[in-house]
Design a protein that fits this description.
4 copies of one chain form a homotetramer.
Chain A: E1 5-6, H1 17-25, H2 42-50, E2 55-59, H3 62-71, E3 78-83, H4 87-90, H5 95-99, E4 104-108, H6 117-124, E5 135-142, H7 153-166, E6 169-174, H8 177-184, H9 188-192, E7 197-200, E8 211-215, H10 221-230, H11 239-250, H12 253-269, E9 284-288, H13 291-299, E10 302-303, E11 305-306, E12 311-315, H14 322-333
Parallel strand pairs in A: 1-10, 3-4, 3-5, 5-6, 6-7
Antiparallel strand pairs in A: 2-8, 7-8, 9-12, 11-12
Helix pairs in contact in A: 1-11, 2-11, 8-12, 12-14
């Protein structure tokens, strides 16, 4: 019987060989925690990539990255504007409530899980400026969004302008930042815009256990280092995490991995036509299809998640075989 | 110039080859988080090792393990009795305050950083049973202690009896549990005794990024799984952590690694005589020596930490070369 | 110029003379905190009123009462189902996030700010039973609701049955419980139903600074006493709070005060016809009226809050003068 | 049988008649929360008293005052240096852990429960400046101390200089600030010195239910207002609290009440000689006496608390009858 063709998620894919090599290369003892030689190189490496100064902290998960970044911007009595379907609201088990000591998520609408200044204003303008209501302290956007859609630089700029006008921090959840950046042409600075902090994803893009919090407002990093330790996220052999991140960024591996995943998604999307629920811009396809159609696809060896009653979610990864993507494309066309 | 001989800590040592192999062996995609085949085997593997039912959760750090275990026993308005020099008090950046939502550490005395029932009673008996004072909810002991000393089974039993009598949870910080267990003869059940939860260390014993929380009170595990996610410690590629733990326990690698480290420590201790500040029972040596004597040792190529003004801390690891230990032993004898 | 006629809120009204008397009557020193003779009588007094055993704690505010009650039912990693416009969501400055250590409010729809089993199920049924999503631990309903509407006993019973079926705690925010109870005929047990804990309002009903948390699940009270102290809500001269509560309940003053307020509201509502946005069942009237119409009313000496663009909120109190209510009734009729 | 003569505590004494009058005087409805006319006068009244600008918030308890003040200075990952026997450590049920989201109390020694710069340095100097150890963010001192001893202005100045040098906030718990100030001659500015925030006690000095948080660093007040609401301490009829505070300060009632209590304490102390464990400077006497001697005093009608095995604590209040103090003085002399 043939191997199943996996489109469940990118979050359990194999680790890229270059990252294995990079981890093995730092196996000799070095200073513990983030005192090692590789951790020391992260600020410069990311700074070069983004074309501006930044302070970089590794952590093991995107949830930790998001929450530590937000904790740098939001007081416990404040709130974070995010999309109603944002990962921090829907899928992090209440981690923002824990890390932000009870601060509140203020939920906004928005097509394809993307926010706009209008949608943000619709949430924050009705908040009375008094102590009875939780005031917004920050905005969090997701690049690419939970539906695989990408913010254009001018869209981020408009949100950043609003954030600045209202005195709010701006955070970007970039669990799939690489895929978004690849879609936009590969310029990291364009894809991040003027955010204060970015959760830079690596695990979904061929990493094993490392994500980066990139503070462009570098003053936020100091307290974040204390908070990381306090959250049990300062690993003593941090060099293995740093090595993963450095291997990702040093030869643009992050972009080539993302391009591979995006290309596979495009291959599949090209056959989907009217079935697409959202534009396919990164590596996720949300496909209208009946329960019977899903059965057909699964019988043909494709694995994926249902998305509600009448849809499927298909996710490609850095290592999705071209023939699997092609086969799925054909199978969808044949439905 | 010769390579330095490293006795700084066991917390940055290389990863054991068998763990690399185990991680590579699970590189093929599997279910994310802790739904994979390896994570599924942990309860049984640890259950066999301890001779009783248990529920096992992997996390990346000892701090996370300790705090998640304690959060299962302690309400936010309660307290944890621990030694004044316990890791949770001295070296976790206030993580217990974070994870336990402000619960308090109640500090006890005790020789070589070990607690006794008397020392625990000296802390909890004066606490008035009223709402103005924080009531104890749990006790946390460290096996081996911060000074490398080991609780004998009957010592644990006496503390467990007190915990039971007073209705307190009992947690064991086992960052160096393997070293303690090796000293006691290798029976895991003896070394853990009747604790409710154990933080089973792996990183200091040849691991990369995995520690186990072993709940013997298995009912505690359910909430702990939610709390782990909420703390950002549920890694999506958890199989790499599970693989490390399984490789450690399946062929008693944890014990052979610990024995190697303990043997190296004994080699060094054998030369130290009156200089020893604490019995050497695990893999740490606390050595009385002047600043000048430390200079002599460092000139000879040995690396280690000062311990206050008149002492040094020397730590061996699973891979401390025998000739390094021997050389250090001789150098100490020659002081 | 004539005194304004005040319909802004019941939350700043004068204190009832009997409460002044009751406070003066306990001015002689007694045991501090809740060790005094009056505090000791609360359990019995409320127990008699509700016809079942209960444990009663005084606190200074409804926010503290609600949050301490909920903290007895909800773990930090859990959630509370409440109406989208509930006071705990809209008007408590994020207090639930603070008291519940980051637990989440899960927002449900419902006419006139009342929940139904269907509306609750619509929120909790889609929650996946996994650690990535915050699980419900409790339900909170408001009697009377934020729109002055009252749950009938059978409506509470249906919600209580759902709570029991799903293993959820059930809390009632009774800031205006007296008004609801008066509407229902005056039986406290009917108005509370099978909730586990009730925030029994006194301040809006002629009190100065005391609300009661009534735990019908008396086992919840012990931890709540610790939490009350920990929140700085255990006043040393608690006898003045206890005296207020006791004076309220001992001669059914709470009901006569509420009836007076309800009657004034009915007087006003009788003239409002189609303008009423919600049935008037307690002491709040939500009135459709234009900005110009509001100006007319204000010119005539009536004070009240705008409610959005096209409405006004009018609140009566225990001491609303009959002639004021009558005057307002006529003024509305004349619009 | 004669009335007992009460020296248990000042925390349950009767309310001063002027405060009753002041509360009655604000019984007419006014704006809710702290929008009323009396609350609006507090900043100016306290500003005049202290001779410098300040922002004043009322709360119901000293615990709330202390914790809200500290929350303005201390991040959740930081710590507060206080005396080992400070109220915030010993008697607030862990409230600092709750309000500061798990920040730590760093315990210092000091005679008569007073801190000195040396004692503070002994705590903070050994703290390594790294993320593994909780860093101090503030210092909290108690005026008068838990043993009724008073900081001289130059002693506060020395601590304030250290706080400034190390970038730490400085808080003063003034539950008995009036007594300390009376001892020092009645100048509020002298008794407070250069602290950033003061918990100004009123309840123990003839108040019913109001304490003031006085922010001399007025920038701290804004977040504190949100935190007060979030803690359930924003009472809707706040005017009754404001009235108590204003009545206290406007005619120096606070000082005359404190002088009365202090005088009574001096009367008693004058007879105690070598029995005094601490200098009597405010309104507390700690008296060495055997169990048998305590029985003698109690048989004579005096009520007070034991203080450990061989001592008694005697507290006077604003309304301690002169003849009671005299009688106690004679009884002690006769022991």
């Amino acid at each position: 019987m043939s191997t199943p063709m996996q489109f469940l998620s990118d979050n359990a894919a194999s680790v890229h060989p270059k990252l294995w090599d990079a981890m093995r290369a730092v196996d000799a003892p070095d200073a513990p925690y983030d005192g090692d030689a590789v951790s020391a190189r992260l600020d410069a490496a990311f700074g070069e990539m983004f074309g501006r100064e930044c302070a970089v902290l590794w952590v093991a998960t995107g949830t930790a990255a998001n929450c530590l970044a937000l904790a740098s911007m939001v007081q416990p009595h404040g709130g974070v504007v995010c999309h109603r379907e944002a990962h921090i609201e829907m899928d992090e088990g209440g981690a923002p409530g824990f890390y932000l000591h009870g601060a509140k998520l203020l939920l906004a609408e928005g097509e394809s899980a993307k926010l706009t200044p209008d949608n943000i204003r619709a949430v924050i303008d009705p908040i009375r400026d008094d102590v009875h209501q939780v005031q917004p302290h920050a905005i969090s956007i997701t690049q690419a969004s939970e539906y695989g859609c990408v913010y254009q630089p001018q869209e981020i700029a408009a949100i950043a302008a609003l954030a600045k006008e209202r005195g709010l921090g701006l955070h970007m959840d970039g669990a799939r930042f690489a895929n978004a950046c690849a879609f936009l042409g590969g310029c990291a600075a364009d894809a991040a815009g003027a955010v204060d902090a970015l959760s830079f994803g690596c695990v979904k893009n061929g990493g094993m256990s490392a994500e980066a919090i990139v503070f462009f407002d570098t003053g936020m990093a100091e307290a974040a280092r204390y908070r990381r330790k306090r959250a049990g996220h300062l690993q003593s052999k941090g060099r293995y995490l740093a090595a993963q991140l450095l291997a990702m960024v040093e030869d643009d591996l992050w972009l080539s991995n993302a391009r591979a995943a995006n290309n596979a998604a495009q291959e599949i999307a090209s056959a989907a036509g009217e079935r697409l629920m959202h534009p396919v811009q990164a590596n996720e396809i949300f496909l209208r299809c009946t329960s019977e159609e899903r059965d057909v696809l699964r019988s043909a060896g494709f694995e994926f998640y249902d998305w509600g009653i009448d849809a499927a979610r298909l996710v490609t990864a850095w290592n999705t075989p071209q023939d699997h993507a092609l086969a799925l494309s054909k199978a969808i066309a044949a439905l």
